[in-house]
Amino acid sequence: MRQISNILSLKSSERKHLIFGFSLVFLVFLSYAILRPLRDALALTGHHNELKWLFLATFITICLFSFLAITLSSYIKKRHYTTGLFAFFISNLIGFYIAINFIDRESDMFLWLCRVFFVWVSVFNVFIISIAWSVLADVFGVDSSRRLFGILAAGASLGSICGSFLVGLLVTFLGIGNFLVLSTLCLLLAFGCKYQLIKNNENFSLPIGSKNPLEAIFLIAKSRYLMLLVCFIILLTSISTFLYMEQARVIKAQFFSIETRTQIFARIELIVQLSSLFIQLFLTAKIAKLFGIKALLSVLGCVVGIGFLLLVCTHPSFMPFVIVMCIRRIGEYAFIKPGREMLFVPLSVSEKYKVKNFLDSVVYRGGDALSAQIEGFLSSISIHIALLCGSWLSIVWSYVGYRLGKLYQSKNVS
Known about the structure:
Mean pLDDT: 85
Helix content: over 70%
């Protein structure tokens, strides 16, 4: 009811911004939700041990792309910078559509196309979603963002749900290439919404300004709180990667066509997004209020740790894996992400923006790359050893989350 009253009280210009802002995040997340299951399915075209190298390639590419983006944003007007990013990714999608439709699936060239697509979608995810939220942060003021960002976040969830539903329902009928077209159309429409939002906004007539990519490292090194947050994110990505590797083994062994694998990934994503949205709406705030941030950051690690032990006993069964994977991802969306955003509240403005961007890109993907190499080594010895290591990491992650929650509550961020 409060959100409805907020909308009704808006001025016509604010209501217009809300409509285009909601459409922007809905379309961006819809575009990515279509691409994600395609990426995961195409990544299984080669040997699953290749995934650890794809994670490393993703980390290196994001570091290089981030450096390039920081350099360009220092000289180019924000209006042109955001337009350039949209144009870059749209043109890439058109190229992928042409390549997937004309390259023989049995050829080595198609295998390399799948590898490039995996890395590209991972980069696309980081930058296009970041630029969408950055545009909205510039368009909406402090007061309106507090009142309306909840509605915009709902647009992101709805876009993810719709994308997963469409792929799971139609991929075996339409094929992969047609979904690349649909994702491109979504991105084109999102670009149109972005244009409407910023066309008369003077904030976008100036460059973003120079940034020192190493400044975030210096800020982290000075703060025990931020160092612990880095450990928390690396452990989070490690557990995610260990489960992702198990996912590759299980699904590749039981499903053989690209379309079927895409459908399975999309259905898992749909379960995750629907469940996460329900918990976010009705449970997350209540749990945070009753048990505090320590519970949000620590409980999931214990549960996933038990889940890894279940996988040790049931590997390579499909349903136990699906249950554990869904629990992990639902818990991340419903508890870890809200809790992690809360961790930035007591920080300075410089720490909030510079450190957060560094954590979300370099640290997150670096954790993926490192843990993929470790998991690959352990699984070459024994799959069960790798899963047991995942269980141990989950318990450590839970403890770090609890300690981080205590520091947050005491506001000891020096």
